[in-house]
Automatic annotation (TrEMBL):
Co-factor(s): Zn(2+)
UniProt protein name: Glycerol dehydrogenase
Entry's cofactor comment: Binds 1 zinc ion per subunit.
GO molecular function, a single term: glycerol dehydrogenase (NAD+) activity
Swiss-Prot/TrEMBL keywords: Metal-binding, NAD, Oxidoreductase, Zinc
Pathways per UniProt: Polyol metabolism; glycerol fermentation; glycerone phosphate from glycerol (oxidative route): step 1/2
CDD domains associated with the record: GlyDH
Length: 386
């Protein structure tokens, strides 16, 4: 293909090398790593996930005649942590790094692998974010505030999601994954309308936008029965569908479809201490509601969305985030961070003002309270998500 040298916009689609999902998938990791040509991988994970998975991985790696080496993840996906882990990769002569667990360990493994010049693999034991498939990491400060997106020239070589571990994890993780994934179509359609760039430096492809919409449709169909199944640690077809929607389809959809205001509001919320107890997907749901209000979406769309996400167990009010009584200084800090020059809110088809965004964020409180009342959840409190 001829090189594009005239800055003409091109469409770009990105994806991991291979995606493997299902009950017992983690038991295949050794063979899959062998298939990638790795002979000395490093597994980055925290102590809890290591305790849950070490026996399975020991057998899996022994079957593939691979050494099993763990490195303890420090808990926060900072630049310093990625630098530390890349040093471990270099010192140990490792030829690949596996991020095992949730999105923070996986994002750190990507950054460390990029630093060290080795392939990276995502092995997810929860379905709380769509981080596993993408060619980017979300980098945070030590205090837990959003710092930046870090982009890579390639996606993970392999993504493995074991749905039995997903089903045995606290249901809040899967609920958060639903919140993160629901934003994918809300943002992708906004990006497409505006002819704005996606997350891999091109215009959205039809494939990226369509996968975002497919994720949305599966979530509305299967999220509630899937969450009921996970409450009982069951793996059902609804669980498999929701894991695919939150991990694969949302991952491909946000990266190749693009992000807009929902994730920018998430990033803004990380700037204040009151929201640090929220998961990524919980903050994103506040962002999705804010974007819908900001866009002037009809009540016939906003109200069912707020009701559905309340049933899913996601926050729909600022009160639940500890911001119900926040003064303008706190909300101004959230909005300033959400509207930073590098933020994805600028992918909208219009340029909202600081006041527009703050008012939309404030309006979410009433939207969420009415939704909670309609579904019988009662008054929200800050303790709902502590």
């Amino acid at each position: 293909m001829a090189e594009n040298t005239d800055r003409t916009p091109v469409s770009v689609f990105a994806s991991p090398g291979r995606y493997v999902q299902g009950r017992g998938a983690l038991g295949r990791l050794g063979t899959l790593m062998e298939g990638l040509g790795s002979r000395r991988p490093l597994v980055l994970t925290d102590d809890v996930v290591r305790g849950l998975t070490e026996q399975v991985l020991t057998g899996s790696f022994a079957q593939a005649d691979l050494p099993l080496a763990f490195e303890r993840f420090g808990g926060m996906p900072t630049s310093a942590e990625a630098d530390r882990v890349s040093g471990v990769i270099d010192e140990g002569g490792h030829d690949a790094v596996i991020g095992l667990g949730g999105g923070t360990a996986i994002d750190t493994a990507k950054a460390a692998g990029d630093n060290a010049g080795v392939p990276w693999v995502s092995a997810a034991t929860v379905a709380s974010t769509d981080a596993p498939t993408s060619a980017l990491s979300v980098v945070y400060t030590e205090s837990g505030s959003f710092e930046s997106y870090r982009f890579y020239s390639r996606n993970p070589a392999l993504v493995v999601v074991d749905t039995q571990y997903v089903a045995e994890a606290p249901v809040r993780f899967l609920s958060a994954g639903v919140g993160d994934a629901l934003a994918t179509w809300i943002e992708a359609r906004a990006v497409r309308r505006a002819h704005s760039p996606n997350m891999v430096g091109g215009l959205p492809t039809h494939a990226g936008s369509t996968l975002a919409e497919l994720s949305w449709n599966l979530l509305w169909r299967s999220a509630l029965p899937a969450l009921e199944a996970v409450e009982k640690n069951l793996v059902t077809q609804d669980v498999e569908a929701i894991v695919e929607a939150t991990t694969l389809l949302s991952g491909l959809g946000f990266e190749s479809g693009g992000l807009a205001a929902a994730h920018a509001i998430h990033d803004g919320l990380t700037a204040v201490d009151q929201t640090h107890h929220f998961t990524h997907g919980e903050k994103v749901n506040i962002g999705s509601l804010t974007q819908l209000v900001l866009e002037g979406a009809p009540a016939s769309e906003i109200d069912p969305f707020a009701e559905f996400t309340a049933r899913v167990g996601l926050p729909t009010t600022l009160t639940e985030a500890g911001l119900g009584g926040a003064d303008e200084t706190v909300l101004d800090e959230v909005v300033r961070a959400a509207m930073a020059p590098s933020e994805t809110i600028h992918n909208l088809a219009f340029e909202p003002t600081h006041r527009d965004v703050r008012d939309a964020l404030r309006a979410v409180e009433g939207v969420g309270r009415r939704a909670r009342e309609r579904v019988g959840l009662g008054e929200p409190t800050p303790e709902d998500y502590t």
